[in-house]
Each structure stands twice: as structure tokens, then as C-alpha cells.
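Action item from last week, closing it out:
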Amino acid sequence: LESFLVGGWVLVGLVMFFHGRRGRAGEPPGCRHASLVFAILAAFLAATGLAAKINSAPLVLLPLLVVRGWRYKLAYLSCASAFLALWLIPDYGQLERMAGWVKGLATHTQRYGSGETGFLDARSYVHNALALAGKNLPYFLLITGSFVLAALARLRARKVPDGARGNESSDILLAVSGCQLLQFLITCKFQESRYLIPGMGLAGLDLLLLLGTGTFVFAEPWLKPVALVSGLSGALLAVSQITSLHDRTAAHLKVLAAGENFPGRPRRIYSYGASSPYYAWYFGNSFSGRHYGDLIHRMVPASDRIFFYSNFAGNYLNYRGPVNQSA
């Protein structure tokens, strides 16, 4: 699904980039309806992304900010609503349940609608924001720097006669990076890097607008050191992630090796996304605070040989809670 989302939002970015180029070049003869075509195409892609993942919601605002004229904005909203309704036809019977789930996300302080009632916990939110920015430092620097440069370009344009003309690049970049930052701030509540993937699909559009339009010549002395810092941080991040993956693989192999020491008593290990009733029971029980752990442990045959790996905590659990990995 994540790969699909990246591809979808890359397409959105390309459509917006060429729409912006058409705007800078002026309206060519015979292309009177180009904005309408852009609105319909962007509506289809954005609605598809939203139907696939609700964390795409901040980015759905993007074409609305970019397209000019209330007629085309209304066309975008209408088409996006229609396409979204079509995508949700198989889930119409679950819409009430889905609405309740979304309400839980918005009205509770922890991930997936858990925790105390409230929008967010300030202390955990700041911690999550710092951790998420650190894990995705190149992306965070890109969208933050893009937003600052686009805002500076708009301020400079106001001081120059006719400066608003030909400034579509800074307008689009301001909208793109603003929506990406909004998605980042929302994702900080859950501290999951994979929820940033829709916004990351538009990172190429940020770079095209920064480097391929000539709008930000005034920032060239800054762009080179920033690009160098971003490249180095990206390389360090890649090394860190490879090291973490190596350590996790070693932990998996250690547990699997421990299971082989019990002839005739193999152990089963399930992870996130496993299609299994055992995992479904574990997943539901974990969201109840493991309230039913002892009951499920008694009900499930050989539950002492069934384990689950938590991608969030990086440890192994059974129905009752975390287990000693070396046991």
C-alpha cells in the first residue's frame, strides 16, 4: 500500500508541476479548459490517496490551494467528493464505524484512539515530534526549508513592482510544503514514519520547484550548504537504519534459534499484518490494555508457544504482555 501511495502522490506532484509551468508560460491558445482537466485529474488522484490512507487528508487540500478560480476549485471539490464516494462503495456498511474510529483518533491523546480524552498530550507530542524529525531529518529539512524559502520569495515579490507576476513557483511551493508540514505535525501524535509517505511522495516536487524554476536565485548561497548537510544527514540516517535492521534481524534469529531447542514443540511468531486468528485476538486484546490476556491464554491451545513481535516497541510479547527474549 505504501508503494502505491508513493506512486500516486508522485503523479499528483508531476501534474501540479506541469500545471504550474503552463501558468508561467501563459494560457496557450486552444487550452482554455486546461485548468478544468487539472482539477479533475488531481481530484481523482487525491481522492484515491485519501481512500487508501486517511493520513493523506492534509494533502487533499493542496490542489484546492493551487488551482485558480472559484469555478475550478468547486470542480475539484465536487469531483474529489464523487471519486471518494465511488472508492468507498464497498465500505458503505462500515462508514459509521469508521467515523467513530476517526473521532477516537481526534479526541484521545495516544495512538489509534487510545489514552486519555483530549486532543494531545503536550509532553509526549514534543517527544514524538523530535523523534520523528530525527528519524526523517532530510525530509524534515527539505519541507521546512522549502516553506521558509517560499515565504521569503513571496515577501520579496511584494516589494518589487509587478513582483507577483511569474511567481507561481513560490506560490505552489508554499502550498506544497505547508501541507507537508501540516501532515508532519499531525503525524507527530502517532510517531510513525510510514504515515509520512504520502507527503514524501511530493518531495520530488519540492526539489523541482526549488532547483528547476529559477525563482529562488536569491537563496543560492544557502542552498549549497543546506544540500550538503541534507545529503550527509541522509547518509548517516541510512547507515543508522541499516544498523537497526541488522540488530532486529539478529533478535529475530535469536528467538527462532531458541524455538528450535524444543523438539516437537515449535514456536510460532506473528508480526504486524499477519493474517491469523491468533494475531487478530492479540491485536484486539492489546487495544483493551491486555484486559483479556489471561482469558485468551487459557482458551488458546499451546498459547505458551505463540509469540508476537511489536514493530512499535521492538520486542516480543504473548497474550499476557512482554516476554523475556532470552527465555
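Closing note: Strands lie at 268-270, 306-310, 315-318, 321-322.
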